[in-house]
User: Fold these one by one.
Assistant:
Number 1:
Amino acid sequence: MSLFKRVLAIETSCDDTSVAIVRHDAWVEAVVSANQDLQHAPFGGVVPEIASRNHTLQILPLIEETFKKSGLNWSQIDGVAVTNRPGLVGSLIVGLVVAKTVAQTKNIPLIGVNHLEGHIMAPFLKDSEYAPAENFSFPMIVLAVSGGHTSIYRANDFSEYEILGVTKDDAAGEAFDKFGKMLGLGFPGGVKVDQLAALGKSDAYIFPRGLIHEENLQMSFSGLKSAAQRVVEKIHPEELPKHLPDLCASFREAVVDALLSKLDRAVTQTKIKNVVITGGVSANSRLRERATEWAKHKKLILQIPPLRYCTDNAAMIGLVGIRRLNKGEASHLTLGPSPSSWPQDFS
Ligand code: KG4
Ligand code: ZN
C-alpha cells in the first residue's frame, strides 16, 4: 500500500467553512477558515439555510487560498477528506459535492470523516507554532465543548473511541450564547460573557451546577439557563448594566464547575493521565485557568490545542482523513451526509 503524503480537507458541517492541506505526519501545510458570525448574528443563532448558502460562496475561494498559502499544487495532493457527519445536512452537502468533484476530476480517493473524531484528534496537529507535549499520547480523556456539542470521550487509540458522557440538553457554548442574548450582548455571546466576567465576582449569584452530584458523566445546562433567566428578569433593565460583570462571573463559574467536576470524575474513574480540552469554549479564560491548576494538582498531562484547532477547522478533518486512507480505508462516491454519527463511530 502506497503512503498517502498529503490530503486536501474540507469542513462545512455547521457555520464555519474551512479548507486545509495536511501531511501524513499531522503537519498542517495550510488551513484557511471563514466564519459566518456576522451573517447569523441578527437571528441570534445559526440559520441552516444561511449557513449552506455562505458555504457555497466561500468554499472555492478558500481552496484557492489554501493552495496559495501552502505553496503546493494539485499534483502534490493524494486524497480528499471531507466531513460528512454529524452536522447540518444542507451544510454538509456543500462540502461533499466539492470533495467528490475534486476526487473525480483529480482521480484521487475520497474519505468521509466524522466531525467529532476530528475534534478528538486535533491535539495531535502540528505547525510552526504548535506541537503536542512530547509525553502526550493515547489513552486520553477528551472534553469537547462548543456551541454544538459538549461531550466527554475516552480515546484508547486512533479510531477507538468511547462516549463517556454528553449533555442531556444544551451545549455549554449554547448556554453561554443564550445567556449573552438574555443580557443583550449579541451573538455569539460567549466571548463577551467571558470578558465581562473578568470584572465581576463569581460568588455574587449562586447558579445551579447541573448533575454535578451524580456519579455518571452526563451533563446539563438548561437548568442553569432557566435559573439565570429568572434572576435577570427580576433586574430592572436600567439597572442591568451595573450587574453584568457579577452576573457573567457567576454564570461562567457555574459552567466551569460543571465541566471540570465531570472531567475530574472521568479521570478518576478511568485513571487516564492524558487530558484534552477542545471546542470553541476552550477559549474561555476561566476554564483554561482552572483546568490548568487542576491538571497540575492531579499530575495530569493537559493539552488544550490552540484556538485555530479547537474551533471547527479542516486541519483536524485532514488528519483523521489521511490516517484512515493510510489504513487502507476510502469512501465510495455515493457517500452521503448524515445529521448524526454512524453507529460504528463510537462504542
Ligand atoms: O467550536 P466553535 O467555534 O463552533 C461550534 O459551536 O461548533 O464554538 C463556538 C462556541 C460559541 O458558543 C461561543 O460562544 C463559544 O464557543 N465561545 C466561548 C468563548 N469563546 C467562544 N464561550 C465562553 N467563553 C469564551 N471565551
Ligand atoms: Zn465542532
Number 2:
Amino acid sequence: MDFTLIAHRGYSSRAPENTFPAFDMALEQGFDNFELDAQITRDGQLVVFHDQTVDRVTNGSGEVADHTMEELQALDLATKFEGEGDFSGAYIPTLDEFLGRYAGRAHPHLELKSREAELPAMVAGALKRHGWLDVAGSGTFDAPGLTVSSFWADQLYRSRLRLPNVRHGWLVNEVTEETVAAALKLGFDAVYPRAGTATPETVSHAYDRGLSVRGWGIGDDDDLARIHRSGAEGTTVNWPGEAKAFLEAME
Ligand code: G3P
Ligand code: CA
C-alpha cells in the first residue's frame, strides 16, 4: 500500500498515548512511523505529552508547565486508559528517553506542541545530542528518519532556521491557496490538512507547488477513506493496524 499510516501518539488505541508501550506496540505491529508531542516542564525539561493539562490522561491535575519532570513521571497513566491491558508501569517519557530508545529504528513525527519560544531550540538540541540529524535527509517516511511538525507557524519557522536539513510540516485545518503560499514563504516542506477537509484538488495544488501532504484528525473510517482518496501520502491514526486492514479492503 502506497500510503503511510503514522501511529498517532504511538498505537494509542491499544496503550496509553505518548508512552513507551504505545510506541513499542506500533513498532511491533510494523508501524515504524509514529507521532509524538513535545512540551516543556516547570524545571525546563522536555516531555512527551499532548495536552496542556494532565487531567484527561493521568491521576493528577493542572498544567504540564506547572509540574516538574519528577512530578510528571510519578503520575499514573493506566487508570484513565480506556482500552484493555495492564499498563501500570507506563509513565510520561522525557524527550531524551524517547530519542535514545528509538534511535536508528523509527521515523518520529515530532510535534512542537506548546508555544514557548524556546521550545524549538531545546528540541533541536535534543535531536542533535541523540544523533537524529544524521537521518534527517532520508525519504518522507523512511525509517530511520525524522519530521518536525506544528500547528504554530512561528514555532515551525524557528525550528526550520535551526534545522535546515530536517523536513518541516505545517499542521493546518485545510489546504488552501493561502496556506500553500504561506508554507512556501516560510520555507516549510509539507502541509498537513485535517483529513475531513482534504480533497484531490487541494492536495494536487500543494503537490504542484512542491509540498508534501499527509493528513491528521482521523475520527472514523470515512475520514480515512477521504484522506486516502485525496491523494495524500499518509495520515496519523490512533488505530494503524485496523486502518491498514480497512484501506487494503477498500483498494
Ligand atoms: O498528526 C498531527 C496531530 O497529532 C495533530 O493533532 O491534537 O493530536 O496533536 P493533535
Ligand atoms: Ca500531536
